[in-house]
Design goal:
Elements lengths: L3 H6 L1 H14 L1 E3 L3 E7 L4 E5 L6 E2 L2 E4 L10 E5 L7 H16 L2 H25 L1 H25 L1 H4 L3 H13 L7 H6 L8 H8 L6 H15 L4 H17 L1
Antiparallel strand pairs: 1-5, 2-3, 2-6, 4-5
């Protein structure tokens, strides 16, 4: 039987973990996809299920919870494809944004390690009081650095002063939000080009049969709720995606 005292020692870190997960959750339109950075290569990969969990008609998705340094982006699917020149321009803007995230990635990873590795380990070895003091001494300065970094780089992030100050205060007041710093920044930049077209352009995701099967299942589910014209639009879209592989 698990020692109840041991559970009590790590309760605060469990609460921090719950806050972190809740903050990482995204509720998207059924016509949106979540695209995740795939390492340092510049590629994007989709977080996609044919029959996802929905809340109030919106799709519940998460980025890679164990990789807080990876950004996530939201893009629509099922729409008319963008002209190649326009999508290349959008991807260049995206590349510049991702290139400005080094400090944010380091802070998010640092906070994740402190809250979910160092904190619980110290609690079990030295007790929760000592662990909280040590972690607080390291994580709150990181929150101050995050606040300063957001303000200094707000033009690069496309953030208004109010939004910048609000996000900075959130991660400072609640350190459990700091590991989501990168995702908080990247999701501000909604991609306007079609998700399938973006995946083809980045080159990492080759639109496998598994992905296309999920896409078709989602399109069929949405098509049942639309008029015949909408159903025809989905059929044309899926044919375009298959033809572009």
């Amino acid at each position: 039987m698990l020692d109840e005292a041991r559970v009590g020692d790590v309760t605060i870190w469990l609460v921090a973990g719950i806050l972190y997960v809740l903050d990482a959750a995204k509720l998207l339109s059924p016509r949106d996809l979540l695209l995740v950075e795939d390492g340092r290569s510049g590629y994007l990969t989709p977080v996609f299920r044919a029959y996802p969990l929905t809340l109030a008609g919106r799709v519940l998705v998460f980025g890679p919870l164990l990789q807080p340094y990876r950004g996530v982006f939201v893009a629509p699917w099922g729409q008319t494809w963008t002209e190649p020149a326009k999508i290349e321009a959008n991807l260049e803007v995206l590349a510049r944004l991702r290139g400005s995230l080094l400090v944010a990635r380091l802070l998010a990873t640092w906070a994740f390690g402190l809250l979910f590795i160092v904190g619980p380990a110290l609690s079990l070895v030295r007790g929760p009081t000592t662990a909280i003091l040590y972690v607080a001494a390291a994580v709150y300065p990181a929150g101050l650095v995050a606040l300063a970094m957001l303000w200094w780089q707000r033009p690069s992030f496309g953030m208004t002063p109010i939004r910048c100050a609000g996000l900075g205060l959130e991660v400072l007041v609640c350190p459990a939000f700091l590991p989501n710093l990168v995702r908080r920044i990247t999701t501000l930049h909604r991609l306007e080009a079609d998700a399938a077209q973006i995946l083809l352009k980045t080159g990492a995701h080759t639109l496998t049969e598994d992905f296309l099967g999920k896409l078709e299942a989602r399109a069929e589910e949405l098509g049942d709720a639309t008029n015949p014209q909408g159903q025809e639009q989905f059929r044309v879209y899926l044919a375009t995606v298959r033809g572009a592989r």
